[in-house]
Amino acid sequence: MVQENLVWHEVLVSRRMKEAQNGHRSAVLWFTGLPSSGKSTIALSVEKRLYDMGVKTMVLDGDNVRHGLCSNLGFTMDDRKENIRRIGEVAKLFIEAGVITMTAFISPLREYRDAVRALVGNYDFIEIYCDCSIDVCEQRDVKGHYKKARAGEIKEFTGVSSPYEAPELPEIVLKTDTLTIEQCSEQVVQYLKSAGILSNTA
Question: Is 107 among the residues known to form the active site?
Answer without folding.
Answer: yes
